[in-house]
Design goal:
The protein is of the alpha/beta class. The protein is built from 15 helices and 14 strands. The radius of gyration is 21 Å and the shape is globular.
């Protein structure tokens, strides 16, 4: 890494962002799902009052798993039709499965489930270098940024999600720095980069893309969600009979999930979208292998998404360009400016 990234601090990126909104470790899954939908969040940190620290993140993939397990337990028969879920829940009894599938279970139970590495929480000081945080953000999507502020006087009491703030929260603020924040900052400061190598990069320069996860328009939404859980990805391409992409199924589509909507995941995928959200699916964001990486970053940020499907000239997708992949490409680029 060179001069540009090594002089940028995290505080430069998140200066205008509000303080992180959190849930407590005893918040229910249902309440957390409502918060994600209401605030249009992709994830939320979890605070443990007893330990006096943040202990993890709950995100849309957790909501996705909850919905799939709930739907299968309530309406399905036999084993979970997913090797990932079968392995993960192999030690649970039927009664435990039924208990886990309902939204009254707390987020603490999610954090303690097997395979929770992606929920790990990383905390950086506000004066930490951007480069150091990018190595974590490319894989874990986000980090918490901590900075100390003056203590509140004894006459002032702040409320932390319905509870009095602890002493720690009287002296420390936390903000979230995400993949979106990093890419937006790099794009906004592209002209400050001394060399033009980044602007010359194309999508094909990003190397091998993750294997495509897809379903047909005739498949059920739950079939796509199960494939996403098995492949540990957050998006699934919906293809027509000619193999052209017509929609994107993602964990974000489950924001606002409730008991009365759980059956929607059993619908054919193109019927699921209006039943769940009340709207038809948005046209998928696409790019070609020879498109400019910087221009594609601009498209992704403008669309408020985290991904772009790489397609051929017949609109058939063969890869997914994610924000994490772009950050990996930037970090791996041997140019002097980075």
């Amino acid at each position: 890494m060179g001069e540009f990234v090594n002089k940028v601090r995290l505080e430069d990126i998140i200066a205008s962002k509000p303080q992180a909104v959190a849930v407590n470790i005893d918040t229910t899954v249902r309440e957390t799902a409502r918060l994600l939908a209401k605030k249009n969040f992709r994830s939320v940190p979890v605070w443990d009052e007893e330990e006096g620290r943040y202990v993890g993140f709950i995100d849309e993939m957790d909501l996705l798993e909850w919905a799939v397990v709930h739907a299968h337990t309530a309406f399905g028969t036999g084993e979970l039709p997913s090797s990932h879920l079968q392995e993960k829940y192999s030690n649970f009894t039927l009664e435990e499965m039924e208990r886990l599938s309902f939204g009254d279970e707390t987020v603490e139970s999610i954090l303690r489930l097997p395979g929770a590495d992606r929920r790990r929480i990383f905390v950086f000081q506000s004066n930490a270098l951007l480069y150091n945080a990018m190595t974590i953000i490319q894989q874990h999507e986000r980090v918490l940024v901590q900075h100390v502020v003056k203590p509140f006087s004894s006459s002032k009491a702040k409320v932390f999600l319905g509870r009095l703030m602890t002493r720690t929260h009287r002296t420390t603020h936390y903000k979230i720095c995400s993949q979106t924040d990093v890419l937006r900052y790099l794009f906004q400061h592209i002209r400050e980069v001394r060399e033009d190598s980044l602007e010359n990069l194309k999508i094909s320069d990003c190397g091998n893309l993750p294997r495509l996860t897809s379903i047909s328009t005739e498949d059920r939404a739950i079939d796509g969600f199960l494939k996403m859980l098995d492949s540990k990805c957050e998006a699934c391409a919906v293809l027509d009979k000619e193999g052209r992409i017509v929609a994107t199924l993602s964990a974000s589509d489950l924001r606002g999930m409730s008991d009365d909507k759980i059956k929607t995941v059993l619908l054919p995928v193109m019927e699921f979208f209006p039943a769940m959200t009340g709207m038809r699916p948005l046209a998928p964001l696409t790019c070609y292998p020879d498109d400019s990486l910087v221009e594609t970053m601009k498209k992704i940020l403008k669309a408020s998404t985290r991904r772009c499907w790489v397609v051929d000239r017949n609109f058939r997708p063969y890869g997914l360009l994610s924000m994490g992949k772009i950050i990996y490409c930037v970090l791996s680029n041997p140019c002097k400016h980075l």
